[in-house]
Amino acid sequence: MIKNPFADYPGYLLRHASNANLNAIYDRLRPLDLRLAEASVLLLIQANPGVTQSEACQTLGIARANMAPLVSRLESKDLVSRTPVDGRSYGLTVSPQGKEVAKRADAELKAHEKELLDAVPKELRQSFVEALSYIAAFNAAEQTE
Amino acid sequence: MIKNPFADYPGYLLRHASNANLNAIYDRLRPLDLRLAEASVLLLIQANPGVTQSEACQTLGIARANMAPLVSRLESKDLVSRTPVDGRSYGLTVSPQGKEVAKRADAELKAHEKELLDAVPKELRQSFVEALSYIAAFNAAEQTE
DNA sequence: TATTGTTATACTCTATAACTATA
DNA sequence: TATAGTTATAGAGTATAACAATA
After folding, report:
1. What pLDDT sits at residue B143?
2. Which of A27, A56, A92, B66 makes a 20 to 30 Å CA pair with A46?
3. The domain that contains B68 carries what CATH number?
């Protein structure tokens, strides 16, 4: 067998772990016809009724430019509605249909998180999550745009 | 401030940590005009002279279809050369110029790995890497194609 | 029949620049 | 001037299907 020079590189493992994580989430969300970014926004709105797009962007770390089509798609599926709060920004709320979908998405994501943690031996879990927080915060300062 | 319902979801943290990791790597490789996938392949070939594309695919978890243009680009930059081993497969080797670039890429990646680990408190590092291995192995079975 | 490599295509997330309208 | 949102475009990684040539 071939040597993998990166087999024990944390960054390499991190990337592959993230891919495994994403693929598992995609599989769970596909039946709901939701992409991960869409599900994130939907659930964020549900947790913060009336939130504006720019607030959602800041909280989720999504670039403003990418939020626009994302919310449009949620709106076109009647999961989310936009109501003007002033001349230039909208308050976002989840529609009744949206709440149904959000409920299912939330269940899938929670089930996924459990599955993910279950893949890690119990005694490593806390350190794992804590370590991730440090790295995730790494370039949180380098704001998008 | 807005509530982030995912702030403590391991999967969410994993994804953001991976993004931070990738952005840092991209910044380091940009001056070398190498993408991460290209650097990975270049260094894999250097560690395994004569390796074939399909072997490289299996080892790095890259789909065959994506390896083709990747190696083509490395070849067009005279970093890697293909020599037929049988009628349908090529052995890949790193050219003298390639070795220079590989050396620099290796230094950047190693420096990055150090920086990454340094962002994690010392007492968490071992658990962190170990936990990542479990998750990275998660869908290693679900082979690409 | 199975394997190697290739092409074409598509999906998802992310990123930047330029623009309109409003504050 | 700064902010909110939009549009267009691009880059990077990943994925599938279909194909030719070879084993």
Report:
1. 43
2. A27
3. 1.10.10.10
